[in-house]
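JOB MANIFEST
job_type = single_chain_structure
chain_count = 1
residues = 400
[input]
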Amino acid sequence: MNDSIIPNIDEILKKDRSGELLTSSDLLFLLSRSFSFPISHLETLKGQEENNKRYIVQDLYNALRATDEAEDGRFPITDKIDALRKLHYCYAEVARRDSKDSIDDLITGDLRIATEKMMSGAISEHKRVFIKHFARGTVLKSTQGFSQPIRDIIRNSVGNMSVGMIKALEARELQKVTDLVEYCDYVAGLVGIGLTQIVEATDNQHEILDKNKAKVLGRGLQLTNVAKNIREDQDARADYPDSRTLFIPRELFPGMNPQELFYSKDKVAKDMRENVFESLYGLARENLKDSAGYVASIPDYLSGYKAFCFSPLVTAIETWKLMYHSGAQRIFEGDESAVKISRDTFKNILEFTVTAVQSGKINEFLTEYIENPKKYSFQSGDKRANYEQWNSKWNSANAA
């Protein structure tokens, strides 16, 4: 993780306090640290004939992060919907206008209005700093400099995410598992398709990547986020009822209200929490297993993009392993150690990604890993499958 082209969080905050304008890279690291490293792989691990997609994807993820902040903040749902529509409009206009046209009217108009609403509901310094600098239009102007196809892809991704979020906000609660799958497709699955289109546009690799499988990967990653953030979302909903969607489908806890599901200590509620977790786990496991096939299908000459997809997939699987081992009760209690892999584990995933890409053995590893994830723990010192031991053996066996 000691990547010299990745910023330091303290340095970013220091830049903000001194009045400096933060870069798109700074903003990405502020709120999307777990993705900033895989995104850097698009540059540092790209193949010889592969074009650098890092800065395109960086701006895309910042746009999506801003959209996410509009959904997540603690301010009224009506204002959230308005903010989401205004963000989408800004990106639609950037795609529609010529790359040399002024967009100052967007920055001082709809972007300002949207971000002011978002700022009113931001609950951390990192979020406030992100929103403040996003409002200045740095990311929007950077996006304007991309080719027309790329601007169209980013516009569509922001639009799809906004549509899914608005639908969920208006519903307030998801009723069926199919509603959850639809939500995940809008906010992440269709982004997966957009990423394949970025590959097509930048590397001229048409019909190489399976768009449906790319959607499944995005869906699986979003299902992971829903599960790990179960209690955080519920607490936000309890603190500010008119600001959040209940993402756990009602059909998973019939005859029980959300307060009972989260806070009751009786056996019925405990059993229901177990059932909810098992249902989410089964749904995510199915999607992540299929996602491994997508990652394996990415040609090795697109090594940067393959690494970019590989490490989030492994991170999601390792997160589910942690949650399953921790148990539903700790997850519903909001125990951070039950839902968040350690920094060392994440570091090991990133280091192994580099090794696997450089050896050209990602597919061989995925074949074994997806069938028996417990055999390959990325947790240092794990007695069940010590990372240092199996990694050393794997590297020796697969040395060129």
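[summary]
The first helix runs from residue 9 to 17.
The chain has one domain: 9-397.
exit_status = 0
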